[in-house]
Every structure is written in C-alpha cells, then in structure tokens.
Amino acid sequence: GESVGLHLPTLSVQEGDNSIINCAYSNSASDYFIWYKQESGKGPQFIIDIRSNMDKRQGQRVTVLLNKTVKHLSLQIAATQPGDSAVYFCAGNYNQGGKLIFGQGTELSVKP
Amino acid sequence: SAVISQKPSRDICQRGTSLTIQCQVDSQVTMMFWYRQQPGQSLTLIATANQGSEATYESGFVIDKFPISRPNLTFSTLTVSNMSPEDSSIYLCSARVAGNEKLFFGSGTQLSVL
Fold first, then answer.
1. Going residue by residue through chain A (112 aa), what tens digit of pLDDT does each one get?
2. If exposure means fewest CB atoms within 10 Å of the residue's CB, which of B32, B36, B43, B106 is most exposed?
3. CB proximity under 8 Å: B 1-60 to A
4. Is the CB of residue B41 less than 8 Å from the CB of residue B111?
5. Interface contact A34-B48, CB threshold 8 A
6. pLDDT reported for residue A97
7. Nearest CA to CA, how far is A69 from chain B (Å)?
8. β-strands B109-113, B10-13: how paired?
9. Please, what is the end-to-end C-alpha distance for chain B in angstroms?
10. Chain B residues close to A42, C-beta within 8 Å
11. What pLDDT is stored for residue B94 in this prediction?
12. Mean pLDDT of B22-42
C-alpha cells in the first residue's frame, strides 16, 4: 500500500540553528508533495509544496528537497525561531489523484 | 487561499450517541475531504466528500459509521455515529479550491467520547 513516513518523531534545535526534517514515501506514482505545520489546537497550515518534476524549491526561510531516486524529501528551516515550534507533516498525493496521504509527523522544539 | 469554518470546535459526547460536524468553505471548491487525527498521531483520510452523491471511503471506514453529506460545492457534514471512546479524535475538514493544488484545512473538531 501507499505510505509517507518520517524518520524521526522529535527534533530539538537551538534558536538560530537550521532544522532539517526528513520524510520517506513509498508510492512511486506520487507527483506532488507538500509540507504542513500544525500548532497545538489548530489545523495543518501549508508551508511549501513541490512537484515531482523539481528537486528543490525555496520559500521564505524554508526549502524543500525531493530525491525521487530514493523516494525521500526533506524540509529545511533556516535560522529556526521559537515560533517554528510545532509538528511538521509531509504529505503526498496518491497515484497523482486529488487526495493526500500524510506522514507520521515530527515535533520540532526550538530552545531559546 | 480558502477559509474553512468547522463547527463545533469541540464537544464531549456520551457513548452510543451521534455527532454531526459541519464544514463551510468560503471559496469555489473542487474537492472536499474528511480526516481523522487521533491523539498524538498523524492525519488519516476518512473519505472524499462528493457533491450530490455518496462519499468515497478509505479502507477501514464505512458509511454506516461515518455518513457524509455534501449537498453543494462549499458545504459538507460528517456524522460520527454510535460513538465509543475509541472515536475520541480530532476530525478535520479540508478542501481544494479551484486553480490551487494545495489542500486547506479547518481548525478541526476535538471530540471526546465518555
């Protein structure tokens, strides 16, 4: 079956450092991936997305890297701030369809 | 972007009862979905809400337990039927709007079943 999974359940970083959150997926037919941030008591909030015809995409302080060969994507957050503390989920579409399948989530804690 | 309003935001229910969650989107919607997020876990897709027809359920979810309606493009309801404590979760409505691949989420309904 399809799955999108994360390597680490928790990540603790010092304020100002860079954060890297990793994610693996199993469905070769997925052609769209997205990262969400979820703060306590809120719904997931879009961070950045990438299509499979790209291997890198940059946003404001965030970069997503996609390695289709090993079915891996990562989210890099530059100069991590306390406000970045949240759970981060990767998600991929299933067989190029409309629905998204979510990974397990990584809880990012930023130490001041 | 899209604003998704979901209500109630939370509820505490007795086992054996049912709860209907409403979801309203402020934009032109192409697809709507319902997810469940159990405590400390990721999001699991329950079903795709189809306008004017029966929802498409994922493996492990059935219409008798989670009936879904979508009478028009921008509104959907999810009912959690005959609830048990195992149904205690956050239920999230999501939607994809025209011209945008992103999936937007409501704030969720925190359900506790006693």
1. 455 654 458 999 999 999 999 998 887 778 899 999 999 989 999 999 999 999 999 999 999 999 999 999 999 999 999 999 999 999 998 765 678 999 889 999 999 8
2. B36
3. 4, 30-31, 33, 35, 41-45, 48
4. no
5. no
6. 65
7. 24
8. parallel
9. 37
10. 107-108
11. 96
12. 92
The rounded distance, in Å, linking the Cα atoms of A45 and A108 is 15
Å from A75 to nearest chain B CA?
17
Phi/psi of residue B5, each to 5°? -105, 130
Of how many residues is chain B composed?
114
Taking the C-alpha atoms of residue A82 and residue B16, their distance in angstroms, rounded to an integer, is 42
Tell me the chain A residues in contact with residue B92 when contact means C-beta distances shorter than 8 Å. 43-44
Q: State which residue of chain A sits closest to B1, comparing Cα positions.
A: A46
Question: What pLDDT is recorded for position A91?
Answer: 94
On chain A, the residues whose CB falls within 8 A of the CB of B96 are: 98
